[in-house]
Specification:
five-stranded mixed beta sheet, six-stranded mixed beta sheet, single chain, 10 helices, about 20% strand
Length: about 270
């Protein structure tokens, strides 16, 4: 056994010893974890690989629509999901009557404003079209970042409740298009700039370092790009779910994130 293997074994053993034993039926049945398509699934698959060594099988299920993972969780089709920040979860739960609980934090996924046509936000011309996500919380994130870029000014104290109706000043008369988040990278051929979340930016080959403005520069926005695990309220304390999350939040998975994503995605622990 190599030194690295010994370290991995010791780290995972410490996690497992600190958790309650699983019933045999729970240990044999894979847990199903939902995630949006993209790099978040790569991290979950690494955690699943490690958890299987500890007797817990996990199946990672990718969804292409941000509405699907919470619907599937509420319906009992999956056991956990990991794709959203707590504000998105709260918004969907309120709007759709879901009984879902926010659990531990997983990763930091700062988004950015990207452009294929301009190198600086200040180069975007009058009357240009920009794009933001069409879901409420992420639309607000985008508007805050466009404000940070100096292109818009929002009404005071709107924060994560901001909508395009809260744009108080639009000196360049920009046209704001609301587009499904998964389609925003493709929109870059047709718009001057777009807000793109980290998973879709990664899939589209858009490093955060190339963004006109990155969310990392808006320190107060940190809670809005920290992802969390979610489970149904009536299942949030189940031992197998806690065990998987603990293995995910281990040093070996942290090392995997840092090596693979080189700062575009960061561990939240």
């Amino acid at each position: 056994m190599t030194i690295a293997s010994r370290v991995l074994s010791i780290a995972l053993s410490a996690i497992v010893l600190s958790l309650p034993a699983l019933p045999a039926s729970a240990a044999d049945k894979p847990i199903k974890v939902g995630v949006s398509a993209g790099p978040y699934g790569d991290i979950l698959r690494e955690a699943a690989r490690l958890s299987e060594k500890e007797g817990l099988k996990a199946e990672i299920i990718e969804f292409t629509d941000w509405n699907q993972p919470n619907a599937a969780l509420q319906a009992g089709d999956i056991d956990l999901n990991n794709f959203q920040h707590r504000f998105y979860l709260a918004n969907q739960s309120k709007a759709r009557g879901y009984k879902l609980a926010a659990l531990d934090e997983s990763i930091l996924v700062p988004a950015g404003i990207f452009s294929r046509k301009y190198k600086k936000a200040s180069e975007i011309p009058d009357g240009a079209r920009i794009a933001i996500p069409n879901d409420p919380t992420n639309a607000a994130r985008a508007l805050l970042l466009f404000e940070k870029a100096g292109l818009l000014k929002l009404k005071p104290n709107t924060g994560l409740s901001a909508t395009i109706l809260d744009v108080a000043e639009n000196p360049n008369k920009l046209q704001i298009a609301e587009i499904d988040a998964a389609q925003l990278p493709r929109s870059l051929d047709d718009v001057a700039a777009a807000f793109v979340s980290s998973n879709y930016a990664y899939l589209a080959g858009l490093p955060l370092s190339t963004a006109l403005v990155a969310e990392t520069e808006v320190t107060e926005a940190k809670p809005y790009f920290t992802l969390i695990f979610a489970a149904r309220e009536d299942r949030k304390d189940e031992a197998n779910l806690k065990k998987f999350i603990a293995i995910y939040r281990s040093q070996p998975v942290k090392d995997f994130i840092l090596a693979k994503f080189k700062g575009s995605i960061l561990p939240a622990w």
